[in-house]
Amino acid sequence: MKHLTFYFDPVSPYAALAFDRLPEALVGCSYTVEYRPVLFAALLHAIGQKGPAEIESKRQWTFRQVAWLAHQLNIPLDTPAQHPFNPLPLLRLAWACGTQPLGTPNRLVVEKILHHVWRSAGADAVNPERLAALTQDLAPARDPGSEVIKEQLRQATEQALKAGVFGVPTIAVDGRLFWGLDALPMLAAYLKGDPWFASGAWEAAGAKRAGVVRRH
């Protein structure tokens, strides 16, 4: 049985779709999943990139593609009233609900948080009244606003960066990173023992090559 680490931030519609798609995509595979909330904005800052929603033409394409993918996969998806939004309250709430051996939230908690954002008829994801209702529903064992929880989120994000995570969703297994909704078939192939992964092709494809370096 393989252990998967699912890195996510509720601000990402791709993370929401990948979360819902995961069980079906991995039918026939033997695995467990650890869900790790991380701050996507911090990942972007660390690698010097803007988020897709911060570039207008890219934002338009992102949400058109997301709408199409949701339609194609028959997964309900509603864009929240404000996007991008500050996901920190939701990320901290997720960690505060952690019940797994590593203190991470279980699938039900993650599902409720993602559906709060992406299945709420376009409501504001961080509206104080809605956040209060979600917190009451989840009944976290710890205080989401405590310094302990804030530090746990910071450490999780730093650990993700050290592991090579640069975006969400990313699923890690055996030191390999599978990024994005469209990587789920590739992940399933790996879990089912596709010989490509043991052939050296994975390493060869990712080898560093000479190239032009852009000057800023």
What does this entry look like structurally?
With about 220 residues, this protein is an alpha+beta fold. The chain has one domain: Glutaredoxin (3-Layer(aba) Sandwich), CATH 3.40.30. It has nine helices and four strands, in the order βαβααααααββαα. A four-stranded mixed sheet has the order 2-1-3-4, with helices on both faces. α1 packs parallel to α3 (about 55-75), α1 (about 15-25) packs across α5 and α4 (about 90-95) crosses α7 (about 145-160). The longest helix has 18 residues, at about 55-75. The protein is globular, with a radius of gyration of 18 Å. The termini are far apart. The mean pLDDT is about 95.
Main beta sheet: strand number and arrangement? 4 strands, mixed
> At the fourth CATH level, what is the homologous superfamily?
Glutaredoxin
Secondary-structure-based class equals: alpha+beta
Annotated CATH architecture: 3-Layer(aba) Sandwich
Order of helices and strands: EHEHHHHHHEEHH
Q: What is the averaged pLDDT score?
A: 96
Distance between the termini: 46 Å
Q: CATH class, please?
A: Alpha Beta
Strand content: 5-15%
Coarse morphology: globular
CATH fold-level label: Glutaredoxin
Number of strands: 4
The helicity comes to 40-55%
Question: How many domains would you count in the coordinates?
Answer: 1
Radius of gyration: 18 Å
